[in-house]
From TrEMBL:
N-acetyltransferase domain mapped to chain residues: 18-180
Protein name stated in the entry: Aminoglycoside N(6')-acetyltransferase
Gene Ontology MF annotations: acyltransferase activity, transferring groups other than amino-acyl groups
Species whose genome carries this gene: Cellulomonas uda
Keywords: Transferase
Source domain of life: Bacteria
Pfam families named in the record: Acetyltransf_3
Amino acid sequence: MTEQTTSSEKPTLQGEMLTLRPIRAADAAAVWEVVTDPEGKRLTGTTATFAREDVDRWCATVADLPGRVDLAITLAGQDEYLGEIVLNDIDDVVRSANLRLVMRPGYRGRGYGTEAIELVLGFAFDGLGLHRVGLDVLSVNSRALSLYENLGFRVEGRRRDAYRDGDRWCDAIDMGLLEDEYRAGQLGSDR
């Protein structure tokens, strides 16, 4: 399911429904929609405010940044940016990275995130040789928590009141997936 090609170490990953490709300048309008979406910001704990010119610059240059792989999620055979999946804080010595996923408002809940994560985990463990992929998810984002658990991530801890949810606080749930857990999950699935 995961055909991988690399260009300057930034992969293009092909799945059944999706193609993951490096983010580029032409994605800026769709990225702008993501970073200004109130519900998306709430579910990811994003408090930063972005200027449009910063988003334009980011999209034009992120593919060149070391220590991270930022991929646009697109439907196979199409090029429209539906969301993005990121491996950042890549540490070649510890062989670990952090995972982040965000979808445009109209594309949430369609299964795209599941396939995107599966593709990126294949790249992380088989392509980059990582030992661990971690992430954090907000306690108010039950759909994402369930998704990560279904993909084999384990809860490793909880940071109480780490994020704001409007006028209230919410916890951050730290999760991780180790290489051997990933491989064991591969044996029992069709991924």
